[in-house]
Amino acid sequence: PMDVWGRTRRWELGPLGNGGVGSIDPQGRTRGSIGPAPQIYGAAPHLPPRLMVLKMQNLHGPRRRRGDGSSESESSEEEEEEDEERSPELHLAMIPHYGAINRVRGVWAGLWPLTALGGEGGVFSSCSSDSSLRIWDVRAPPGGGAMLSVDHAHPGDVNVISWGGAGRGAGHHLLSGGDDGAVRLWDLRHFQTGRSAATLKFHGGPITSLQWCPTERGVLAAAGADDAVTQWDLGLERDPEAGGGDGEEGDGEGELPPQLLFVHMGDPDPKELRWHPQCPGVLLCTGISGISVFRTVCV
């Protein structure tokens, strides 16, 4: 969190290599060369409803190249131009947005393929109290607006989103959680249809936090205002021999969705949950009672 004009907002920061050279994995480790002048993109909600996007580059300041055995006659003008090009820079853009922005999540050039979005970095998503989901590209003109959008992703406010996950093709999958207590899965390759690929219903209150598992494909965790933390596996399906009608998962009265792996109760008013980046399967959850750390046998 960072204080922005007197009000605390959430930020999403991420490094980028020059021109997408090299990569950053979900644990923050660099792979390959990220170039001599790493860039950092940031995004944060702003009042009045606008999305503030900043880009920082050349954070290490001017760097002089060592002699490579060529002629020593380099003019001072050329040296000054090189220093100017390598000096720290901050670019700021304000994007108009209708409705209060709840969360911003970024996806950076790295392990996740972004070919469906036509980009190689600087693409991020936002959710809003106006029920919308939007995909943005910081390289687009300021008046270009969102690349992709769904105006009615949930019946009410959209509180949280999570992009990515583990496995091939995970960069196309976006999770959203709303005041309706539902978790929806979106495939960005079919985003413009406005229809989610799956809807998970169990929570009896608004979804307050959710995140893809970074190590297990199709596994996610969600927290709700109903004092429950749940784990899900999207790869599971209902056994046809067990019966059950068609429709959205969990529609039947007293019927549990087949994708539901585990329900953790007892932490009042959970606000945030995160998978541990170094201990596979370990979940950390914060609420009124403090911080809970647990691991289930399911993941």
From TrEMBL:
GO cellular component, one term: nucleolus
Keyword Repeat: yes
Region ranges (Disordered): 1-42, 60-88, 236-259
Name of this chain's protein: Glutamate-rich WD repeat-containing protein 1
Each WD repeat, start to end: 151-196, 200-234
Keywords per UniProt: Repeat, WD repeat
Pfam family, one: WD40
Residue ranges with Acidic residues bias: 74-86
Example of a GO biological process term: ribosome biogenesis
InterPro entries noted in UniProt: Glutamate-rich_WD_repeat (IPR051972), WD40/YVTN_repeat-like_dom_sf (IPR015943), WD40_PAC1 (IPR020472), WD40_repeat_CS (IPR019775), WD40_repeat_dom_sf (IPR036322), WD40_rpt (IPR001680)
Record has Repeat as a keyword: yes
